[in-house]
Amino acid sequence: MRYALYSGCIVQTEQYGCELSVREVLPRLGVELINWDGKSCCGYHYYSVTHPLVWTYLTARNLGQTEQLGLDILTLCNKCYYSFCENQAKLERDEFLKDLINQILSIEEIIYNGKQEIFHLLDVLYDSIGIDKINKNIVKPFKNLKLASHPGCYAFRPSELRRPNDSENPTKLEKLIRALGAETYTYAEKLDCCGSSISVTNEEESLMIAGSKLIAVKNRGFDGLVTVCPLCFRIFDGKQHAIYNLIGDERVNIPVFYYTQLLGLTMDISPEKLGLHLNQSPVEEIISSVINN
């Protein structure tokens, strides 16, 4: 299993726990992560609405580079994954657009053919590595812990594109959580958005949406929240104090983790290597319960 690792902008600039834990965990499960020079932003945040041609160019540029390396691409960000899938589908439908993009890419001697596969982190964890192999590598399983799954919108929608999980009932993250020894179950608010998409235009509403989700998780009896999306993690974990100041409800103070951080803990990898010291939500008690197990 060899993939060109595409971290995405937010992971490389602030969500270090995501990349740290992925780089610690995946190689121990037989995955080789390949870096490459010259990668750039996928373009989603800056150009998808205002300059869609630039968005398509930037996405195709990254895909063309990895294709020249003979590698499929693994993305860590839900929106980067959507960006790659959306533009790959667009270029497959529109030969004129594909020719135009390749004319632009030819300046850098890059050719986009659209032949390689695009993998979400859930694809690799659940389908490529598999539950059985994960189970065999766990040495400190969780006990008496209930964790809520939050796959993040772009991991299962829009459904007309290839998605790593079912668009109506995504269950892969839940099954991966159970592999750690923790208990989880579906809940009515599982598919609710985190609110990060409107955080720039309406921060208060974004925090209200996130706070509503955190309160629901607490009310459902969960001890913590687990996600694989850095944008969701940023608001649930990094904005938790701001959410509390706005809502004034202590139920929003919930431990939030990347799945790969928890997987690493059960594999007896130190919290520092997994970036757990960077989490801003109250994760200490759960970390201690695993270390002292």
Number of strands: 7
Assign a percent range to the helix content.
40-55%
Structural class designation: alpha/beta
For the record, what CATH class of the largest domain applies?
Alpha Beta
CATH topology of the largest domain: Rossmann fold
List keywords for this structure.
single chain; 293 residues; alpha/beta; Rossmann fold; 2 domains; 9% strand; globular
Description of the molecule:
There is one protein chain. It is built from 14 helices and seven strands. The chain has two domains: 2-120, Glutathione S-transferase Yfyf (Class Pi), Chain A, domain 2; 131-291, 3-Layer(aba) Sandwich (Rossmann fold). The model has no long low-confidence stretch (mean pLDDT 92). By secondary structure, it is an alpha/beta fold. Helix content is 47%, strand content 9%. The strands form two sheets. It has a four-stranded parallel β-sheet, with helices on both faces. Helix 2 crosses helix 13 (259-266) and helix 4 (52-68) crosses helix 5.
Structure at a glance:
The protein has 293 residues and is an alpha/beta fold.
Topology readout:
Blueprint: E1 2-6, H1 9-13, H2 16-28, E2 32-34, H3 44-47, H4 52-68, E3 72-75, H5 78-93, H6 95-105, E4 118-120, H7 121-129, H8 131-136, E5 147-150, H9 172-178, H10 203-219, E6 224-227, H11 230-238, H12 240-247, E7 256-258, H13 259-266, H14 284-291
Helix pairs in contact: 2-13, 4-5, 10-12
